[in-house]
Amino acid sequence: MARPIPARLRPLRSVLLGSAGVLALLAPAGAQDIVLDTVTIETGEAGVPADGSLSAAGGGVAGASASGFQTQGYVATTTRSATKTDTPLVKVPQSVSVVTEQQLDDRNPQTLADAVGYTPGVRIGAYGLDPRFDAFFIRGLPATYTGIFRDGLREFNIGFSTFDIEPYGLEGLSILKGPAAGLYGSSNAGGIVDLRSKRPTRAAAREVEAQVGSNSRYQLNMDASGPLGQSETAFYRLTGIARDADTDYPFASDDRLMVAPAFTWTPDADTSLTILGELQRSRSGGTFAYVNDGNRVTDVAAGDPSFNDLDQSQGRLGFELERRLDETFTFRQKARVQSLDVYGEYAYAIGAPVNGVVARGSGNVAQTLKGVVSDTQLEAKFDTGPLAHTLLGGVDASYAQYTNLAGYGAAPSLLFAAPRYDIAIATPAYSVASAQDQSQVGLYLQDEVAYDRFTLTLGGRHDWVWTETESGTPDALTAQPEQKDSEFSGRVGLSYLFDSGIAPYASYATAFAPNIGTNSAGEAFVPTTAEQWEAGVKYQVPGWNTLLTAAVFDITQKNGVFFDVNPLTGTNEQVQRGELRSRGFELEATASLAEGLNATLAYAYTDLEIVEGTAATTGNTLSSTPRHTVSLWADYTVQSGPAEGLGLGAGLRYLSSSFGDDENSFKNDARVFIDASAHYDVPQVEGLRIQVNATNIFGEDAQICSSGFCYKEPERNVIGSVRYRF
């Protein structure tokens, strides 16, 4: 199903690739081609000064300006993700959470969902055990498809075609709560996650790590960084992992190979160019579902050992360039090509057991998702009388090409009391096909105006989107009417910073997100729109490396696309809902103290109402959405004495009860998960660390039901590691 780019869209693609120069040579050519993973070029310091991190070992690579991502231990003071400028977080009129590299080191998350699991307002686990997709919600709204960005650029995701995120390749991530379309265009109304790739460091720094864990897990990590030879202007980084692992599911693996090269060039103090790349292949299962019997999940796997595979190859290559033109103007440009190919095959249960027999079907899917994204911006800092301006203007553009082939057939039935999986399943022929091209261009302007202790943030953006869709069978694709969308989105916010470090704020923002993919009838989704009111307060405690935040919000979203599983067939579906309203408040505290204590505390209350749904769901609460979530993580390392270097960490994640379906006919129980870690920096061998991490250490055996289908929660997972930095 490799298709040429429509003639009407070729000029846009030329603009996108031409602005990036070298990217034109790396554009995806065929539906099955693999492109090197995103290379992102970012100006400024390439290393993140996170205590104890490999990036901190080199102090970062000096560039045109600060990197816009400043952290100390668990606490972040600045992230460019919030405003695309270097405005301190305490002055940003929006709730922003940051997971720093030291948090990643201490908790050792294995997926992106694990990495954000201690963030207020971010809900994970709606689909139980499933390492295939990083499914998570922000402020109750699904962020998997339109809420993931990498190095400030959108990462396309749809259906099975979701980029696998390897946490070891990150040096931190930022979570922006609420609409961010005024700057980023197409994005989730509940918020976005911006991933920050590992970058070169000025000083030489290297590490190797071996991990062994539950489910026969064996993993080797390596990370090396520093100057190229004796150069003072060219720096490199090379990160890689190799993993062979099983999972809690009896017929699925969690294998991965990843290599991520990076290069930074700083010819002078005003110029920086960083290239980030990644090439990755992952192997897992086509399904992680178990047979459902009524409103409960059973221990009988619906899949099959001879027909349960998900093989994914992905790549990205991009650049970021920053040039400080003078004391007033700074130019930035970034662009990326990205490509993903996925093949999956699976068996699934058709409804509940009938007379002790489980009927099953089979399916297979082949998808490709390729595209290019770019962002070009000019920042100006100047004064007009008593007003200090940070003015940012830019244009970004994207082009995505998505293809989908699917086939469905029969699979042997199972005896529910004594299931046997010894009959081969034939691969069904492809019977359903779709193809889609989507182009987007956005113009944005933002002004951060400072007067005395006030900061007024005004931003607006206009987007134009063209979507061409074909659907039908592999031999007969029928073109749907071209969909053209145009929308304005923006944000206005005001904050005030007191001498005490307390900063109250209020803001209003709107969102606009065209959706890639089609519904069950083969029709393109209409764009998702939303608006939000938010008020809050931030407190950067003077003399303490501590940040406290609180926020209340009210979001109304129309035409959101959700990832659901059809309870009758067990197959994956995208569903577009009429109108949802999410209201609530969030509390967060992060601290890194000199005595070796690091901690995060989070609480969120979320009331998510289906304002416009079916006759049976209107006015109800969206399924699997708990009203209350609480998380706490603390890590303490002994600073002196005989136990110097010994550290212990513990975490708690609580989710209150929720409804198991949108009809609110039954409930999921409240759940508590306890995580822990122990680590030891061996004093006699500098750079040697021994560490053990465990999640769900008490083996909480629970189920979670979403949209009427129930899943098993992940079981206890223990990983031991030995790391040596030199």
UniProtKB/TrEMBL annotation:
Similarity comment: family membership: Belongs to the TonB-dependent receptor family.
GO biological process, one term: siderophore transport
GO molecular-function terms, A-Z: siderophore uptake transmembrane transporter activity; signaling receptor activity
Domain TonB-dependent receptor plug, first and last residues per copy: 90-192
Record membrane topology: Multi-pass membrane protein
UniProt subcellular location: Cell outer membrane
Every TonB-dependent receptor-like beta-barrel domain range: 265-697
Main location class: membrane
PANTHER family linked: FERRICHROME IRON RECEPTOR-RELATED, FERRICHROME OUTER MEMBRANE TRANSPORTER_PHAGE RECEPTOR
One cellular component term from this protein's GO annotations in UniProt: cell outer membrane
Keyword vocabulary terms for this entry: Cell outer membrane, Ion transport, Iron, Iron transport, Membrane, Receptor, Signal, TonB box, Transmembrane, Transmembrane beta strand, Transport
Lineage summary: Bacteria, Pseudomonadati, Pseudomonadota, Alphaproteobacteria, Hyphomicrobiales
Protein known as: TonB-dependent siderophore receptor
